[in-house]
Each structure stands twice: as structure tokens, then as C-alpha cells.
Design a protein that fits this description.
Blueprint lengths: L1 E6 L2 E6 L8 E2 L12 E3 L4 E4 L5 E3 L5 E2 L5 E2 L6 H9 L9 H5 L6 E2 L21 E7 L6 E6 L5 E5 L9 E2 L3
Antiparallel strand pairs: 1-2, 3-9, 4-5, 5-6, 6-13, 7-8, 10-11, 11-12
């Protein structure tokens, strides 16, 4: 079954499947998060040389060199904040920090897949959406998030279970 998705004014047809699709990148768009921007620290962390932030290579619940061991953990916004607080010095990134990982020239996933492998990017599952620590200013029932299927930055109801990628440094 194919469903239309409007992303930044483009109409994309995405095949709905349980398997993660192959990343699609456009050569006519300059990469916003090229390999030269990141350093693999060799300890399952990645330094963003543009921001100085240190990121966990894998989404929470995943591990291994290619982030294929385990199952992606999802959390409500409140539980995501609590999970991050219990993993000091890690924290939940704010909206701007999380959005800085979006690779504008790619989708499925819209992130540098060399440095952040196996990032969930199934259009129809909440695991593709990652919580930020930023509340949604105009409605306290919502918080900001980033969808790494398309790179869309938006907001979601705080009681929905979404994925988490932790960061340290900055702020």
C-alpha cells in the first residue's frame, strides 16, 4: 500500500513496510550534515564538530557498532526527560540541537546514516519521531520533536511514546 506524504512542499510516495527502507539522498541538494562534520569517538559516541555536542551513536534501546542489537525504546515526553536525567551526564536535546542532526538532502532516514546507523525511519511508526526537551509554547499538552523519516520538526502530544537520542555538552 502506498500513502502520500507532504514534506516541505514535495509529494513523496512512501512504501509502507515493516523493514527499514534504504536511505534516499538527492544529489542536487548540498548535504547539511556531511561526514566531515562528525567524528566517531570509538566509544559509541559521535562528536558534532560544528556544534561541539557529543551524541550517542544509537537511539535508546539499540547498541552495537551498527546499532542493530536490541529494540528501539520509546517513551512519553515526561518519561524521556526522566530517562535522560537518570543517565547523567546525558540529557535530552532541545529542539534546535536535535534538528541540527537533520540531513536536508536525504530521507528514510534524514540523518547522516554513516555516523547514526539504523536510525528508525518508518513513516507509520512513532519510533521515527524523536523527543526534544523543548515544550510547545502555545499548548502545554505538547512538546517539540523531530521526525527522522523526513526531517520534519514539529510537535506531538506528550503522552505519545516516541524515540530518544541522548546528547551531552552544550546548552
Amino acid at each position: 500500500m502506498r500513502r502520500p506524504l507532504i514534506v516541505f512542499g514535495w509529494l513523496l510516495c512512501a512504501a509502507v513496510s515493516s523493514a527499514q527502507a534504504q536511505q534516499v539522498c538527492r544529489n542536487d541538494i548540498r548535504p547539511s550534515a556531511p561526514d566531515s562534520r562528525y567524528r566517531d569517538n570509538g566509544d559509541q559516541t559521535v562528536t558534532d564538530l560544528a556544534t561541539g555536542l557529543i551524541w550517542k551513536r544509537c537511539a535508546e534501546g539499540l547498541s552495537g557498532t551498527d546499532c542493530t542489537i536490541g529494540t528501539v525504546s520509546t517513551f512519553t515526553w515526561r518519561h524521556a526527560l526522566q530517562h535522560a536525567a537518570s543517565n547523567a551526564p546525558w540529557r535530552l536535546p532541545n529542539k534546535k540541537e536535535l534538528a541540527s542532526l537533520v540531513e536536508q538532502s536525504c530521507y528514510e532516514p534524514s540523518i547522516n546514516s554513516r555516523f547514526f546507523p539504523n536510525t528508525p525511519s518508518n513513516l507509520n511508526t512513532p519510533s521515527s519521531w524523536f523527543w526534544s526537551s523543548s515544550p510547545f509554547a502555545s499548548n502545554s499538552d505538547y512538546a517539540r520533536q523531530v521526525n527522522f523519516y523526513s526531517g520534519y520538526v514539529g510537535f506531538y502530544y506528550k503522552d505519545i511514546q516516541l524515540s530518544v537520542r541522548l546528547v551531552r555538552g552544550g546548552q
